[in-house]
Structure formats: structure tokens, C-alpha cells
Design a protein that fits this description.
The structure holds two protein chains of two kinds. Chain A is an alpha/beta fold. Chain A is 57% helix and 10% strand. Chain A contains nine helices and five strands, in the order H-H-H-H-E-H-E-H-E-H-E-H-E-H. The radius of gyration of chain A is 17 Å and the shape is globular. Chain B is an alpha/beta fold. Chain B has a domain of 257 residues: TIM Barrel. The longest helix of chain B is centred in the middle third of the chain and has 20 residues. The radius of gyration of chain B is 21 Å and the shape is globular. Classes of the chains: A alpha/beta, B alpha/beta. Chains A and B meet through helix 4 of A and loops of B.
């Protein structure tokens, strides 16, 4: 009998294919998709993150963990009951500033999608202009930025300046999160919201877009 | 010029094609792990310095093997440049072991030294500070250049000139770098040391602006070197090769530099040290340089700690025993906090580490101000003759004194006017008191320097 704990361990060990197989099995056995996501995938990712913080894992492990999560999450998304994935008519631009890290960004994207937002994921290695351009082209309602290493912090500040310069700062609430960020830093830069965890992205989006 | 520059260029268009992602996530990590295991290279997290000669030789052998097995990845063409054993051995045999830096009365000839040698590692201080205020930059440069233990300097990057930003690949960056060069030359004249060595141009980030800066003559073969540094994780691009060729054409000394990031694609300091050796052999092959800067940094953002210092010492000792290149490592506490105790302790660890690992110099030694520079210069000289065992013992004691806390907000980015009188360029009492307290602490730890007697 497969357990969600088994899945957590596979994600923690960054075993992509076995983790995807385990996800299928758990879903077929009728486990709650949200529990599979939170207690299996996200908890396993959190293990890798903790090991990285303690210098027991390296960036490459984070990348592999991202690949593992990516193999599992679409399966879970498909399994959500239709009522839970009701659509909200709000578009969110989501991307990583400068770097290639994507674990946190992908998790935020998944949770926002599950919450019903239309997520336009512009991927990794983005410049401030990429965020601005994507928001303008898509008619977005909010911009969510992942800032994972120090050089990207300055670029985040540049993004806020660029939006102001283009007279669209009021149009797009901007939220930020990521390993090197903090509430105080985000506030100093003038961000509209900061999240410590992936799930904070949903709360912030709901608050800033004035959704009940 | 490197004996193999033309071969390297040829192989960038004929070597095996590979996606960069495959190189960095499969080929390199696999080779690092298997070679590390084969040579049994292991770090004990309680060890702050690597002092074992046999392990140093194993690290050298492993680094050499890494280069032979993996080669260099050329980002410009997505191809792998491989070397033969004979080619690497030839590059090593042809290496220059001495180099003269600076000119006239400030010229120093850097020769190989071993752990415990009477010759101290040279201390090349920071000059300037990271600012857009050129006047402030000048004052900072003067405070370090006036120090008696200043063997040379390495300018810190100017971020711009007032409102003008330092924009890469534009005339703005060239102007900023020319301004850096002018101010550094003027500060050296002011300090009575016009022949001082100025390290590398730090405000220029691209070959175009580097070459434009050298064209002015303000930086030249007598006072400066040209960076040809390899990219992290065994990578090169055509910029490296163009700069290596330009250095040869102009008679400039290439600045070979390796700075692996631990915990990105490298599992720890063991692999960091292996990669530094592999990087150095590769740079030797394509640039024929001599001066080598080698340091590590954690991907978590730290330039200090047992892992970082162990990596730096392991690579340094491996090179001292097998390459005997003029070897320079990072000599700063890594925190811009002139009155922070931990920063001063870390400066001391970096300097003692260099002494007992057989290195020839420290760059960016100290912090931004002259007193931090003085501290690094004096602690280096005080620790020069220490045996590795004595040095490790002192470093352990220093480690026991580290608070591990972030510097107090008031100690970070303290304005120069708070710690120096800009009219006289003498340190203010608050700075002198801090310095004197540290000289007393280190005398208690068993080190001494002639001027420290005055601190009683």
C-alpha cells in the first residue's frame, strides 16, 4: 500500500520517474490530491530546501527536485475536482528574475492555478523588461516575481522603477518572494507584497486583487 | 602567450558538441564525484585549514585528471575543448615561477614561498570603494595606499560617476574605468608610491572596455595585469581567448583567476579545490599566465567559514607543491563593516591561512578603509613564520571568538568621515581604539608586530 510519506521520500531523493509513478498510484488509490500535493510533493521539496540551507545539498539537487515536482504536479492538477479549480478572471504574470531557479516559482504557479487564477508563466532568467512586456501584452492584473540570488534583487528594484517610468506602476500590484528576500527588503523596495512560502502567493493575490 | 592558445581556438570549432545543460548537470558532476572518490579527498568540517601535504598532492592529481577527463566547455560554440596529458605537462613545465609586479621603487618580485617561510605573503589592499562619488573613491584609495604594508592595490569598482551609470560595453563604462585609473594613479603619486602595482581594472566588465582602458596607457604593463579568468564550472568563451591574445600582443601579464561557487554544482570544498587546480592548468594552457588568484565562495553568499578557508588552503598548498605559481587568495573578511569584530577576525584567518598554506599574496586584503588594510598587512607579517600546526591552533582560537552574528547595523557601511579625518587622512579615535584592541587580542594569542607595542 503506497503512502504519501513514500512520495515525500521520493521527492526528497529527487527521483523523478518513481515519484511520478507513486503519484499516479496514490491518486488511483483515492488519496486527497491536496494532501498528495502538500504532504507529498511540497514537503519533499521542503526537505531538499532544508538540506540546501544546511549545505547538505547543492543547487543541482534543487534543479533535480524541480524536475521531480514537475513530473508529479500536472498529474495532481488533473485530479482536482472541477469545483475546486473554478476560474477567476484575473491574470498573473509569474517568473524568476535573472536566475534559472524555478522550484519556488513553479510551486507558486501551481497553487495560484489551483486557486483559479490564470497564470502566465514567463519562465526563468527574465529581465525587468520581460515582466513589463508580458504584463502589457497579456493584460495582466498582477506581477509575481521570484528572486533567488543577490544580483536579482537589484533587478527587482529596477522592475519597479521601470513600471513607474512606463506609467503602469498603479496598474500592476507586484509581489515578490524567494530565498534571498525578506519582508523588510521587499517593503523598502516598494513591493506590494512579500511571501515567505509558496502558499502566501495565493493569499497576497487575493488580497491585492480584492477577491473575497 | 599560452602554448596552446591556437589549439584551443581550433578545438572550439572541432571539439565534441554538447548542450551546456548536459555539461553542467551530467558530465561535470559525474566526473567530479568519481575523481574525488578515486583520490579519497575528504574534508572534515571541523578543519579550518588543509595542511596535509599528501592530500594536497592528491588534490593536484585530481584537478589535473578533472581537466583531462572533462575538458573546457566553450559557451561560444557549445563544444568541448579537450587536452592531452602531454599538452598539460608541457604547459606546466613552461610556467613562470616568478613575476615582478609594479615598477621602479615599488616593484616587487614575487617568488615561490612555502609554509613557514620568512618571506611574508604580499598584501594587495583594496583601493577606493563601491560608489559613484569620485572624491570619496579617491579618499578611500589614499587611506590604503599610505599604509606602510601596502605592497600593491586592487581598485574596487566605481559604480558610475555621479549620475552617470557604469553601463557595460559602452563609452560610459570606459570613461568610468579611465576615471578609476586616473584616480588610482593620482592616489599612488599622493602616497609617494608611483610605481605601485594596481592589480586589475575593476570597473571594466567586458573585453571592449578593458582594452579601451589599456589603450589610454593609464593602466599598462608596468602597473597592471589583464584578466583572462576562466568562467565557473570549467567554462570559457571567446572573450577569454581574445583577452589572452591581447595580453600577449601588448606584453601584459595575464591575471589568471578562479573562483568556484561551492554548493552550486560542487558538493563542497574538496571539489572546489579540485576545480581550482583544473581551472589553473587550463588558464596556463591558453594564456601562459603566471599570477594566479584563487578563492572560493559559497553559493549562499559567504566568503568565510571553515569550508571556504579549507578550499582556499587546499588549492593553495596543492599549487605550492606542484606548480609554484605566484598564488594570491582573497584577504578580506567579506563584510563591509569596518568596526565589526567578526570581520576583523575573518581578515586575520584569511591572512594566517595564506601564510601557512604557502601562498604568495592576498588581494583585496583588509576591507575598504586604510585601517582594515593595515590590520591585514600587519597580521600577515606577524604570522609569516608560523608553522601550519601553530597557525591552525591560532585559527581555532579565533574561531572560538567569532560571534556568528550579523554586524550591528551601525557598523555596516560606516561613512568614511566617521572613521577618518578627511583633512589629515588620519584614522579617528573610534577606529584606532578598535585596531588597538585587536592588536592586544592577537598579542594574547601569541602573534606580535613591532608597531603593536605602541598600542599598550
Amino acid at each position: 500500500m503506497a503512502t504519501i510519506e513514500d512520495l515525500r521520500q521520493l521527492v526528497s531523493a529527487t527521483k523523478a520517474q518513481p515519484a511520478a509513478e507513486m503519484t499516479r498510484t496514490l491518486l488511483a488509490e483515492g488519496h486527497d490530491p491536496m494532501a498528495i500535493l502538500e504532504d507529498g510533493v511540497m514537503s519533499g521539496l521542503s526537505d531538499v530546501g532544508d538540506r540546501f540551507a544546511n549545505k547538505k545539498a547543492i543547487v543541482l539537487d534543487l534543479v533535480r527536485a524541480g524536475v521531480t515536482a514537475k513530473a508529479c504536479i500536472p498529474l495532481i492538477e488533473e485530479a482536482f475536482p472541477k469545483g475546486e479549480s473554478r476560474k477567476i478572471d484575473r491574470k498573473i504574470i509569474l517568473g524568476t528574475m535573472l536566475s534559472q531557479h524555478n522550484i519556488g516559482k513553479n510551486l507558486v504557479g501551481t497553487l495560484l492555478s489551483i486557486a483559479g487564477f490564470e497564470v502566465i508563466d514567463i519562465g526563468e532568467k527574465n529581465s525587468p523588461w520581460d515582466f513589463y512586456q508580458a504584463a502589457e501584452k497579456s493584460g495582466a492584473h498582477l506581477i509575481a516575481v521570484s528572486v533567488v540570488f543577490a544580483p536579482a534583487m537589484e533587478k527587482f528594484t529596477e522592475l519597479l522603477g521601470l513600471l513607474t517610468e512606463m506609467n503602469v506602476r498603479e496598474k500592476y500590484p507586484v509581489i515578490v518572494g524567494g530565498a534571498v528576500t525578506s519582508r523588510a527588503w521587499a517593503s523598502d523596495q516598494g513591493a506590494d507584497g512579500w511571501g515567505a512560502q509558496a502558499k502566501d502567493g495565493v493569499l497576497l493575490a487575493r488580497q491585492l486583487l480584492k477577491l473575497a | 602567450m599560452g602554448r596552446l592558445l591556437w589549439e584551443v581556438i581550433e578545438r572550439t570549432v572541432t571539439g565534441p558538441v554538447m548542450a551546456e545543460e548536459q555539461f553542467e548537470t551530467e558530465l561535470l558532476p559525474g566526473a567530479l564525484a568519481s575523481i574525488q572518490a578515486k583520490h579519497r579527498i575528504e574534508w572534515d568540517p571541523d578543519e579550518p585549514v588543509m595542511t596535509d601535504p599528501a592530500l594536497a598532492d592528491a588534490i593536484y592529481a585530481a584537478g589535473r585528471e578533472l581537466l583531462l577527463e572533462v575538458g573546457l566547455y566553450c559557451k561560444s560554440t557549445k563544444r568541448i575543448v579537450r587536452f592531452t596529458e602531454a599538452e598539460i605537462d608541457s604547459a606546466v613545465r613552461g610556467a613562470r615561477h616568478e613575476v615582478t609586479l609594479g615598477h621602479d621603487r615599488q616593484a616587487i618580485t614575487v617568488r615561490p614561498r612555502a609554509p613557514g617561510d620568512a618571506q611574508h605573503p604580499y598584501t594587495f589592499f583594496s583601493a577606493g570603494t563601491m560608489t559613484t562619488d569620485v572624491e570619496l573613491y579617491k579618499y578611500y584609495a589614499r587611506t590604503t595606499m599610505q599604509e606602510p604594508t601596502c605592497d600593491g592595490v586592487v581598485p574596487l569598482p566605481l559604480y558610475g560617476i555621479d549620475e552617470m551609470k557604469n553601463v557595460a560595453d559602452t563609452p560610459a563604462q570606459t570613461l568610468v574605468c579611465l576615471t578609476e585609473a586616473r584616480v588610482i594613479n593620482e592616489a599612488a603619486m599622493w602616497a609617494g608610491k608611483p610605481g605601485l602595482w594596481f592589480g586589475i581594472p575593476m570597473s571594466a566588465t567586458t573585453p571592449l572596455t578593458l582594452i579601451s582602458t589599456f589603450a589610454s596607457g593609464l593602466y599598462n604593463k608596468h602597473n597592471c595585469t589583464l584578466p583572462v579568468q576562466i568562467l565557473q564550472e570549467m567554462r570559457i568563451d571567446y572573450d577569454r581567448l581574445n583577452l589572452a591574445f591581447f595580453a600577449e600582443q601588448q606584453g601584459l601579464e595575464p591575471w589568471m583567476s578562479s573562483c568556484p561557487a561551492l554548493y552550486a554544482y560542487l558538493t563542497g570544498p574538496e571539489q572546489g579545490a579540485m576545480e581550482i587546480i583544473a581551472h589553473t592548468l587550463a588558464m596556463l594552457a591558453y594564456s601562459g599566465g603566471s599570477v594566479t588568484q584563487a578563492m572560493s565562495v559559497s553559493v549562499h553568499g559567504s566568503y568565510v567559514g571553515n569550508d571556504i578557508f579549507w578550499c582556499n588552503s587546499a588549492a593553495g598548498l596543492a599549487a605550492e607543491r606542484n606548480l609554484k605559481l605566484p598564488w594570491i587568495t582573497y584577504g578580506s573578511g567579506g563584510t563591509r563593516a569596518p568596526l565589526d569584530d567578526d570581520a576583523w577576525y575573518h581578515i586575520a584567518i584569511a591572512c594566517i591561512n595564506a601564510c601557512i598554506s604557502g601562498m604568495e599574496g592576498l588581494w583585496l586584503a583588509g576591507g575598504h578603509s586604510g585601517m582594515e588594510a593595515r590590520w591585514s598587512g600587519e597580521i600577515t607579517r606577524a604570522a609569516t613564520r608560523l608553522t601550519p600546526r601553530e597557525g591552525v591552533e591560532i585559527i581555532r582560537k579565533i574561531n572560538g571568538r567569532l560571534s556568528g552574528n550579523d554586524p550591528a547595523p551601525g557598523a555596516v557601511d560606516l561613512p568614511l568621515t566617521e572613521i577618518y579625518d578627511l583633512k589629515t587622512l588620519k584614522p579617528k579615535p573610534v577606529m584606532l581604539d578598535h585596531y588597538r584592541r585587536f592588536t592586544r587580542i592577537f598579542r594574547d594569542l601569541g602573534l606580535d608586530y613591532p608597531t603593536w607595542q605602541d598600542a599598550d
